[in-house]
Design a protein that fits this description.
The structure holds 2 protein chains of 2 kinds. By secondary structure, chain A is an alpha/beta fold. Chain A contains 12 helices and 14 strands. Chain A has a 7-stranded mixed sheet with strand order 3-2-4-5-7-6-12, sandwiched between helices. Chain A has a 5-stranded mixed sheet with strand order 9-11-10-13-14, with helices on both faces. In chain A, strands 1-8 form a two-stranded antiparallel sheet. In chain A, helix 7 (147-159) links the parallel strand 6 and strand 7. In chain A, helix 1 (12-26) packs parallel to helix 7 and helix 3 packs parallel to helix 5 (92-101). Chain B is of the alpha/beta class. Chain B has one domain: 3-Layer(aba) Sandwich (Rossmann fold). Chain B is built from 10 helices and 7 strands. Chain B has helices spanning 4-25, 30-35, 37-47, 72-81, 123-136, 156-166, 187-190, 196-203, 216-229, 264-272; strands spanning 63-66, 143-148, 172-178, 181-182, 185-186, 206-210, 236-241. The longest helix of chain B is centred in the N-terminal third of the chain and has 22 residues, at 4-25. Classes of the chains: A alpha/beta, B alpha/beta. Chains A and B meet through helix 3 and helix 5 of A and helix 5 and helix 6 of B.
Chain lengths: 317, 281
């Protein structure tokens, strides 16, 4: 069985910051906007390298989205930075009309997604953002799993023409994907080959899926593990070909089971290859304060939860 | 450049277009459109410096953004009559498969439109973004925008107004159509906004009043004054005092025609008050 090595825990938001720093040097059309969270989004290096291309808008996210839309006129590629909650729900109509409907080349970069920002509690967490963003026609939705992949995705979205929602997080998590990877939007990555169950995970849950696959392997269950970093457009073919082998699927995400990755996978399977599915996701609830680890355990977003879901879904075959 | 009489003739024709467009589909917003007819005609013929070929990027030309997109009839009429798309296309306003959507969009690729508007309060931010882009591109052309007065009740405007002053966005002229009306009644009755001049000035803008916003010469003079004030570290606001429904007597001075089309008889009365000058579409 292929093994993945954690080269040291790192936060995905720092991967975004590193990618943005590199873009600052390589792409003069890239501009960055931030709503008073420069440090949290790790945008400070871009800001100090390129003060003329960095726009501090203050605590005014709606205005930030509108300015970003306007800056595309004239050829700029704006990257907006704030927490996921304030990047989506707070400014939904601004994104909808000025960015998505208007087809503007804005990159909405959102940190502190899900519940793993921890102690700040539910006002600053969001478990609905994937659903909100994937519903918008023309919006690309990406949720990266570790530092290296977030950096690669940040570089890749600058070359993609069209609005993108890039979702990442606050905590330090295992960094295990290749440092020099090329990020292909919409292309799922098959991390482990298996035959008994497919595990499709996104974001912080990808590492947990690998851990779960190890535990399943110990009891003689072979798991196919797919890292779906792009939730829209979804790699239907990767899902179909894996589930054809395994006959069942577990989806895993740090998001509400309503509107998230799991529902997108269900849509693909129900129309093309109806198969048993179990959802590792939050159950239509808000989060709360706590450490990231405590929250992931309480809300059932652990490798143990994936392990149990896999056993359950195999039994349903 | 057209003279005042030519602009007046064009305005009369634009009023006919507006009435006929909304009448045909029995929907749309004639009141605010009529109130801004002189402004649009003057802006597109004597003020904006635009390139011959429309491009979304709008480099090295003046840009205009409409934030109160519901007055699309006047916008479409003037765009068509200044050559952005065929005048005949005004026939398709609000019809299925048309580029002339109820509210302006970029989605169908209508030349002249660079942002969707309709959901109110968003255009100021967009105009600021475009103005910042011009500065980064060392492009000395200006960005113009138009906003309803009722629209300023949307909070995003004040985020934008604060930002523009704080960041010396001095290549922007934001015009407010001060007609004192909104859907539910006069702005005074719906939500009194106090002195807009005082508010913009307090935020750090310079303000130019055009007291008769339905007079072409007054608009030319006021906009020239506004233009002269750009480039001095402060954004410029024009308070354009207009009469809603201007040029059609029964539509004037009331909010009643904000979003209501005339019937056959009312159309005839309105058209009789605005005889054909340049040919109907």
């Amino acid at each position: 069985m292929k093994t993945y090595v954690n080269t040291g825990n790192k936060d995905t938001r720092s991967g975004f910051g590193a990618g943005l720093t590199e873009l600052g040097k390589t792409n003069e059309n890239v501009v960055a906007l931030c709503a008073d969270l420069t440090g949290s989004l790790k945008m400070d290096e871009f800001q100090s390298n390129h003060p003329e291309r960095f726009f501090q808008v203050g605590i005014a996210e709606a205005n930030m989205m509108g300015i970003a839309a306007g800056m595309t006129i004239g050829g700029k590629i704006p990257f907006t930075g704030t927490f996921a909650n304030f990047s989506t729900g707070r400014v939904y109509d601004q994104i909808r009309q000025s960015i998505a409907y208007s087809g503007k080349n804005v990159k909405i970069c959102a940190s502190h997604a899900g519940i793993t920002l921890g102690e700040d509690g539910a006002t600053h967490q969001i478990l609905e953002d994937i659903g909100l963003m994937k519903m918008l026609p023309g919006m690309t939705v990406i949720n990266t799993c570790d530092y290296n992949q977030t950096k690669a995705a940040t570089l890749a979205i600058a070359d993609h023409v069209g609005p993108v929602y890039l979702r990442f997080g606050r905590p330090k998590v295992p960094n295990f994907t290749a440092e020099d990877q090329k990020f292909e939007i919409g292309k799922a990555i098959n991390l482990l080959e298996g035959t008994d169950v497919t595990i499709i995970a996104t974001g912080h849950l990808v590492w947990e899926a690998l851990e779960a696959a190890n535990k399943l392997n110990e009891i003689g269950v072979s798991a196919d593990v797919i890292n779906i970093h792009t939730i829209k457009p979804l790699d239907d073919q990767a899902i179909i070909s894996s589930v054809k082998k395994t006959g069942c699927v577990v989806t895993a995400e740090e998001h509400n089971y309503l509107g998230g990755l799991g529902e997108s996978v269900s849509r693909v399977l129900s129309t093309q290859l109806p198969s048993p599915q179990e959802f590792v996701a939050t159950q239509d609830t808000f989060g709360e304060s706590g450490t990231p680890a405590q929250l992931m355990k309480k809300y059932g977003l652990t490798n143990e939860a994936i392990f149990e879901a896999a056993k359950k879904v195999i039994a349903r075959k | 450049m057209p003279n005042t009489q030519q602009l007046k003739d064009l305005t009369t024709q634009v009023r006919r277009d507006i009435l006929r467009m909304v009448h045909k589909v029995n929907s749309g917003h004639p009141g605010g459109s009529l109130g801004c007819a002189e402004f649009f005609v003057t802006l597109y013929n004597n003020i904006l410096k635009t390139n011959n070929q429309f491009s979304m990027d709008g480099k090295n030309e003046d840009l205009f953004f409409i934030s109160n997109g519901h007055i699309s009839p006047v916008y479409y009429s003037v765009l068509a009559r200044t050559g952005f798309f065929p005048i005949d296309e005004l026939n398709t306003f609000r019809l299925i498969n048309s580029r002339l959507q109820g509210h302006p969009t970029t989605h169908e690729g209508l030349p002249g439109v660079r942002i969707a508007s309709g959901s109110l309060g968003q255009g100021m931010s967009v105009a600021i973004g475009a103005a910042l882009s011009k500065k980064l591109n060392n492009d000395n052309h200006l960005v113009y925008s138009l906003h309803g007065d009722g629209e300023l009740q949307e909070g995003q405007n004040w985020e934008a107004i604060m930002f523009a002053a704080g960041n010396n966005v001095d290549n922007l002229i934001a015009t407010v159509d001060l007609n004192g009306q909104q859907i539910d009644g006069s702005t005074k009755d719906v939500l009194p906004m106090g002195s807009l001049r005082a508010k913009f000035e307090a935020f750090g803008w310079v303000v130019v009043d055009i007291e008769n916003g339905n007079d072409i010469e007054a608009i030319q003079e006021g906009m020239a004054k506004a233009k002269a004030l750009t480039g001095n570290n402060k954004p410029v606001c024009v308070l354009l005092h207009t009469v809603m429904g201007n040029g059609v007597d029964f539509m004037m001075h009331t909010h009643a025609w904000h979003g209501k089309a005339p019937n056959d008889e009312q159309l005839e009365i309105g058209l009789a008050q605005n005889p054909e000058t340049l040919g109907d579409y």
